[in-house]
């Protein structure tokens, strides 16, 4: 870069970056000053528009400074690192919104059970190693005991840190493979898309598999670094030890993820073995990963053998195969059909929800596929040669994960294959970033003028901006994707705590969509999931609850139940009239209320 260009360009960049940092700082302050006062159906619509405007400004500045030359002859490399820090801070505020805005907890269903397990460990009801995957629970109790914040808030930080790991180690992994700051910048914004988070079995709430998948980015970074380790006669290296420790941590986070990673690393090992046998290119000279894969398998087998994982998994898949052969399977197809019918009833469609949830993933999958074809067709070119080894490894990993993905499609519990899909998106994020860098580098090299380079850079920044909007608008559940925020308020949590504490004996609860069972786990810290409470079928509200059951029960309804069923699901199963009927039905009495939580006494068939 000519000196004069740098002098003319730097003040502009400094001013723009200052505006960006002021915007993200103001955004955090505005969000903090606007805490949630009740249940919020959507974090997008209830958060102040000033917050979204500030994040938009900060990310726009970050993209512009990272990619776009401000003059025809300048390049943005001098300020790129600062721009990435700015973008990272904007993501910190975005992902941390439930924390910044004072949410008591964020997560329903599995998240509430995980909170209960953390409570059980904290209270000494059971030991961490009594759980099959104690990773997020032990980290939660560690934060709780060292910092002194509530367990529910501590678990929010566990989710937050997992996202930060992903946003940090994806660009570090790509930077290890491609020694170019532009590649790191592309990878950073690719990571900011959070492609593994689909809100279908992969969430930005406490969910062991979701956090484990995001944690796997650290393993891939260590893998890329390990390949370049110079042993010089040593059998053990610092990177190798870190890789092994991260493998153990992955087992503790979720053994099921490690089972998927084993398939991926076996595919990588096979490619490396063939390359070394054929003395093929850079792969033949890289440090073999056989020992690390063997250690990962051993750690997985040692841990899983104590929990009946193999027998359960074998029974699970054999049953699925049998159902498929006899024509009773196709769980995924049945689930898609059911969801499609439900979406049609509330005015949506499968095509619409697919594009909202998976368009960025589709774009990056096409980029990764194009990179794979490019490696095959143009492997001799200098640009492809620089990344061919790692590209081949990660493509092999995706190929190895393919059969696992298909197996889950035909297995019961159809959403399980989205867990494999989430892990595949980690590899796709890295491959897609490398592909974008390759295309951008080639266009820049072929451009004969600074103006052409600026146009190409602006197009890249604009494309990333559009993808970020499309991706981030769907990572938190909201009515935009026909879902609801899993926000748990203080009133809801204390309502359930009071109800469980003061109930008559061990009288069971009724609720909607497994709510009482999950809150039973969260409040009481059950080691084994609670299944004794029941759901109210939709017809029960119109037919009458009093006298429906052999024993008297309690009915728990929350503001979240109402918002979910009436607003987000548009009365698909439970209507506004159903909620109103509870309070007016003779014999059904309200015994507790705090504005967010209501508890009713439902008499038995032979009772009063």
Short note summarizing the structure:
With 608 residues, the protein is mostly helical.
Structural features, described:
This protein has 608 residues and is mainly alpha-helical. The protein folds into two domains: 104-446, no CATH class; 489-602, no CATH class. Helix content is 66%, strand content 4%. The chain is built from 25 helices and seven strands. A five-stranded mixed beta sheet has the order 4-3-5-7-6. Helix 8 (151-177) crosses helix 19. The longest helix is centred in the N-terminal third of the chain and has 30 residues, at 3-32. Residues 1-7 have low confidence and may be disordered.
Number of helices: 25
How many individual β-strands? 7
Proportion in helices: 55-70%
Low-pLDDT segments, ≥5 res? 1-7
Structural class: mainly alpha
Instruction: Please outline the major beta sheet.
Output: 5 strands, mixed
Query: What strand order characterises the main sheet?
Result: 4-3-5-7-6
What's the pLDDT, averaged over the residues?
88
What is the 3D shape? Answer: globular
- What's the gyration radius in Å? 26 Å
* Structural domains: how many: 2
- Span of the ends, CA to CA: 87 Å
Q: Bin the strand percentage.
A: under 5%
